Amino acid sequence: MTKRSTYDVPRAIDWVGGLDGHAALIDQTLLPGKLEIIECHAPETVWHAIKRLSVRGAPAIGIAAAMGVVLGVRDHDEDDVAGFVTRIRGVCDYLAGARPTAINLFWALDRMRKVGESADELGVSATKQALLAEARRIREEDAAMCRAIGEAGLPLIQDGVAVLTHCNAGGLATAELGTALAPLYLAREAGRKFSVYADETRPLLQGARLTAWELGRAGVDVTLICDNAAGACMAAGRINLVITGADCVAANGDVANKIGTYSVAVLAAAHRIPFYVAAPSSTFALDKPTGAAIPIEERAAAEVRSGFGAMTAPKDVRCFNPAFDVTPARLLTGIITERGIISPVREEGIRELLSASATCPDSCAPS
Amino acid sequence: MTKRSTYDVPRAIDWVGGLDGHAALIDQTLLPGKLEIIECHAPETVWHAIKRLSVRGAPAIGIAAAMGVVLGVRDHDEDDVAGFVTRIRGVCDYLAGARPTAINLFWALDRMRKVGESADELGVSATKQALLAEARRIREEDAAMCRAIGEAGLPLIQDGVAVLTHCNAGGLATAELGTALAPLYLAREAGRKFSVYADETRPLLQGARLTAWELGRAGVDVTLICDNAAGACMAAGRINLVITGADCVAANGDVANKIGTYSVAVLAAAHRIPFYVAAPSSTFALDKPTGAAIPIEERAAAEVRSGFGAMTAPKDVRCFNPAFDVTPARLLTGIITERGIISPVREEGIRELLSASATCPDSCAPS
């Protein structure tokens, strides 16, 4: 943790120093009680940090894994090129096992593997530097993408607005700034006066533990509410904008996100409150025609029955605990991407935005 | 706990034996982990049970207080009539202090005071018996009222229905059967096949701790969900009826109930799922023209920040924690009362039902 942005958004993960440096990540399992930095000097430390959710959020996990590759190969003998390539693959395979369903993890490790393949040409020493550069690039690209989402969404955060958010799509889930929270951090930077309501987000309370923590730390005016209070807050006129993140956006604009997002969207529509989702273009899955094609993970009953140490329900009661729900495109006012806002949310608009990136990578890439 | 109904609904509070007996109440602070009965042989035990929420729910609190009066005066000298009346008043004043805002508590103690006033006529011994009879009558009237609500609502619980309920308006809050849960217990008794989803009901988790417990114990097919999952369950067609309790019904039919009820009502309307409230006629407040006149208690931030024993949010984060919300009459399909279902929910229908009770107390009284 060598640097901080002026608005004090915590860096979930960063690289400190040169090739002999280390990865530094916030132990999110200790938040909000303690802010402790885990210094990773070996890939095993990164593996465990991913495994036990010390680092979470798809982009942050990808960055951590990429840095883990650097840690795992940097002491390799400078003269052993063949062994070096094998070792890179081995470290990548090892790190991929930390969370077997995290797409960003594989994506980041693939990028590292590709860099490793040029070792024959570059030699061991230069490839080590190239791997560190690639890991840093993955982080910087994500940070730039978050900032671009923030800039696209900034016009929504005018003086006096009160924004509701759900779960944590903030700096802790990404390299910096987050997705849903990025427009808020930029509005804070711009000196705008606004307030935020954070849904606590049962069962895992990411809103209470992480969003309230990082917004409060950055000086944003934040109020924590139980998920049950969102409707009453809207009815009382306390909220006039909703922004959440997204785990996956289908081709027609249906959005899978943390359980409860759909309820918030229905409530927002009933109160005529604009409802936006913030998502990088990498979150769109054009092979899924609608939200019905997005698989919904069902998680352990223990999260509902005994989430925080105490048993708060009969120990044998059946629970239904879906991790995500699907919000249909018709309930979205817009999707804030790093290339601008898609509104209204229609399949044509989505395809147009995504194909634009394919044909003009330079001008459309996150700046 | 001498008797159990065949369907095994727990008795939150009961009197065991004769004048030398005791009040037996379930210690609800230990649920769902432990079922422990507190035997109250003195009014102090009742006072503490009310104070520390071992007994909760307006009707159950009133019954406990009435029984506490019996316990406080039953050893009075048979020859001291004047001192006996004074003592009854003293015990009533003492018990009234246990929860200074509980309307049913004062109402029940008033009934006991009135019985005490006939001591000059009846003598001490007969008045003691009359006080015990009155306490039992308060309990029996409440049990009958719950059963009448259950019978009114029973036609809604057909084979195959899946009912969502919020908070705990069950046997634990009343003498028996509860209000919202009464139709479910009678449907179970009638052998109907149906299922129930219980919202866990943050912040105090009455759905998880109490509703899931008492329904499960009675053999009702119950599934516990986080409040966040209610919308997704509705969208998936898992729920086709909602019944909740009510803390107060305004003259126009607006309903104040546990925080989150309003959100459930909006979701039900969006999915065209019938939404019923179950409430005895004593819950209607005709002096309040609309829900806007019902004061909403705001409770401690600690319930949100550290409700599970662990601190799950930044310790200094601002919280907004309303205990109740108001569901407008337009979102209600009907109100299930002990005298039948009011549907549609309109001021005329409510006044008609309540005035009917005033003019024909015998035929309209709960059976």
- Strand order of the biggest β-sheet of chain A: 6-5-4-7-10-14-15
Tell me the Rg of chain A in angstroms. 21 Å
Q: What is the molecular shape of chain A?
A: globular
Helix content, binned percent of chain A? 25-40%
Biggest sheet record of chain A: 7 strands, mixed
Order of helices and strands of chain A: EEEHHHHHHEHEHEHEEEHEEHEEEEHH
What is the count of β-strands of chain A?
Answer: 15
Mean pLDDT of chain A: 92
What do these coordinates show?
Two copies of one chain form a homodimer. By secondary structure, chain A is of the alpha/beta class. The two termini of chain A are 24 Å apart. Helix content of chain A is 40%, strand content 16%. The model of chain A is unreliable at 1-7 and 358-367 (pLDDT under 50). In chain A, the strands form three sheets. In chain A, strands 6-5-4-7-10-14-15 form a seven-stranded mixed beta sheet, with helices on both faces. In chain A, strands 11-8-9-13 form a four-stranded mixed beta sheet, covered by helices on one side. Chain A has a three-stranded antiparallel beta sheet with strand order 1-2-3, with helices on one face. The first copy, chain A, is globular and about 70 Å long.
What's this, in brief?
2 copies of one chain form a homodimer. With 367 residues, chain A is α/β, with parallel strands linked by helices. The first copy, chain A, contains 13 helices and 15 strands.
Q: Secondary-structure map with pairings?
A:
The structure is a homodimer of 367-residue chains.
Chain A: E1 13-16, E2 22-26, E3 37-40, H1 43-51, H2 58-73, H3 81-96, H4 103-116, H5 119-122, H6 124-153, E4 162-165, H7 182-189, E5 195-199, H8 206-217, E6 221-225, H9 230-235, E7 241-244, E8 248-250, E9 255-258, H10 261-270, E10 275-278, E11 284-285, H11 302-305, E12 318-319, E13 324-327, E14 334-337, E15 340-342, H12 347-359, H13 361-364
